[in-house]
Amino acid sequence: MTADVKNLISHLQTALGDDCLTGRKVCVALSGGMDSVVLLHVLAQLRAQQPIELSAVHVNHGISPHAADWAAFCLKICRSLDVPCQIATLPPLQSKGGGLERAAREARYAVFARVDADLLCMAHHKNDRAETLLLNLFRGAGPQGLAAMPGSRCLNGKQLVRPFIDLPRSDLQAWANAQRLSWVEDESNENLHFRRNYLRHVVLPAIGEQFPAITTVLARTAEQMQEQATLLARLAKIDAKDCEDEHGRLRISQWALLPPIAARNVLKHRLNRAGVHMPSARRLEALAAQLVDARQDAEVFVRFGQTGCHLWRDRLWLDHAMNAPQPQAQKLSDGVIDWADGQLEVQGDAQAIARSGLVVRAVGQGQRFQPAGRCRSTVTELLREQGVPPWVRPRWPALWRDGQLCWVAGLGWGGAADDTHGLALTWMPTPDQII
Known about the structure:
Rossmann fold, 6-stranded mixed beta sheet, 20 strands
């Protein structure tokens, strides 16, 4: 092992928090490119020194004709390192005015948000940070955007970490060459139609002719902007204290009483903390204005990429499953069924379940139902009483037989419930996310 390798491992240990790393689940966002391959290899060597549960996830957008080959390469390299690898193959992207780059990014992060890990490691480096600062500057971003890829942030309950963010790409390249690693090259990285590529291949080299240290300077500016963003986050926590309920969630009616600039700062901080892709300043102002003007019993909905943001019952709810595909109607079987808003565990005699004729599918709208021992009503009203948000109710899991509604998650069996086929049904909902 060379001194450079030891230094890179030491750098990684420091960035990930050496004192609390043992036994943690660490997942690598593996594209197959040089940067992420280096990160995977360094973590694999770190695993030999310090016990971590290492895995990788590769997102196949299907955009490139080589996408399947890249996925196969990632599986191969992970097998060689004895690292479990998940391949997430996505449906065709819908750019809807935000551009293909943004749509791809949002789709990737939606996958990353669902990864089972304590730490999700990404291989961004100092050059990436400089490019991101310029991109965000040209979009008119504030301190949070100009912080350009912080070294660490929260993502849906896990920590997203960029351990190479302070290193130039040349360090990773030198290490990869010394270790004789192989990787894939994405042909789209040369396409100047994409703004990041244009900055990388045209703008930054031109600036570098007059300012040779431009990458380091921009990265240092990003660090300073991160400090400013940290101070704003601290101020947001102070301003939010008088607006929180007993669970630390914002009471929007109280939040609306803050000065507009403070209200927007609190809102931005809470969305960022929840891992929501930050909207433009204009869109954030529009959302804040809607919330301020809304009646206390009003329902407001705003879309942020793959996440829905709802005002309901004076709280702001996030719906990360807004675009998650629902399972098709299927015959009930023993085991665990994944659902957009949780999991349904089915236990019982397999043959009895097969004979029951029960089918699991979404409850839909307009159905009437009488849970055992209760009055008959609409499922919508019954779920409302249970505190299930209105946007979740139509996709709520239910059991049907011959077109008749028999069981609803959280409500139980209909009628006298004397024909449950010996089933034990356990609905495990995903916890609500309220900012």
